[in-house]
Amino acid sequence: MSDAGVRARMQSFFPSPQAYEIIHRNLYVTHQRVAETFRKGRVLLAGDAAHVNNPIGGMGLKGGIQDAVNLSDKIVRIMRDGAAERLLDLYNLQRRTVAIEFVQEQSIANKKRLEAADPQLRKRNLDELRATAADPVRARAFLLRTAMIEMQRRAERIALEDA
Prior knowledge:
Radius of gyration: 21 Å
Structural class: mainly alpha
Strand content: under 5%
Order of helices and strands: HEEEEHHHHH
Number of strands: 4
Strand order of the largest sheet: 1-4
């Protein structure tokens, strides 16, 4: 965190004949959290307000977009079609469940894979990814999961009675 240490890191990534002026530095702290509920009366949470995770893999961004699509569909059905407001409970159940089951789990796995310092563990991780890429069935399952399509399908299978 010293000026010299930060300058050395900058030079290793972006070599420059001039010394970098260090104005600010900070350690990035990654949080992994899912709100206790995505609905409290008329207040609804989506995206980073509902679930926060490390940015590796864009899981929070994709999850937030899926939250918005899921919620907007339910709001339209309530306001335009007269559906019961209980649909908002379904939004909470669907999106919170998949945030816990998919977003948190996958982003933690991504982070662990990238942070692995042990050369043998890194080799095993890369070998596993190569084996997955070489197997069409495993590759498809991996892509459905990391692209969060499987998450979307899981959310659609979750139902409330008479929602």
